[in-house]
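Revision sheet: structure tokens.
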Amino acid sequence: VSNEDTITLNKGLKYIPFLKTDGEKPQEGYIIGIHYTGYFENGEIFDSSVLRDEHIMFSLGEGHVMPGMEEIIRHMRVGEKFRVLIPWQLAYGEEGNLPIIAPKTNLIFDIEFLFVVK
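Predicted:
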């Protein structure tokens, strides 16, 4: 995958679509189901719903996940898979999420959009 495949959104959020579909687009208030694997920039995995074999669900637009995650989901359709670079400002910010994620840490996620519930 080359830089030519990378799409940059506002505030430095970047993504590479691995799999595109014609699936449904999410809307505010929908329950979203995703699988994800989170990496540090050095490639080390810090969290993975895939490895736990347990997807996560959250209501879009209610702040249950970091701002960068909410934003990228708005650009995805059901069935799609993206690799996302979330700059620290849209991740855990100046505080981080100690002890695992240090302050001002950029994060990379592989996200698979599994389903929506209206």
